[in-house]
Amino acid sequence: MHDPGSQAKDFLADIRLIEKSFGIPKTFSYDNVYPEFEIYKVLVSETTQQILVALCVVFAIVLFITVSLQATLIVTFVVILVNVYTVSITQFWGLTFNHILAVNLSFALGIAVDYSSHIAHTYLTVKIPSDMVINGQKRDYKARKAISQMGSSVFHGGFSTYICILVLS
Asked: How far, in Å, CA of 92 to CA of 105, rounded?
């Protein structure tokens, strides 16, 4: 199967070579599909740049909210894993990297941040009963409470997100 993105880039390169070799100086050709083809030239670099900037912003904001470097690193790692998984599954399915996938990567990043940062923040703010002295018991208790307290928030967040993306369907 041919990649339309590479075909579009090759087409534009060929057109520019023809214009440079045989065209009239200071003129260019134009067609309605050229802007769409131009997208494929910068899509990967722009999407990568967008994701990296978003990850830096996520790191800074989660660090500001949680004031915990360990929790911030875990949340950032979860967000990276979600995007790696999204790119990997599209590669496995043989899909073409296009502007729709770029939007979905941004969307996946946002959802991953939303849920994982809420759970991390709740984990950090759960009050531990005074009778617990073993660190393993404390961590287990905090994890259980964070997930049980965040259940309704995660559901409401997911449901409102679902309503918002119905427009895209």
From this structure: 16
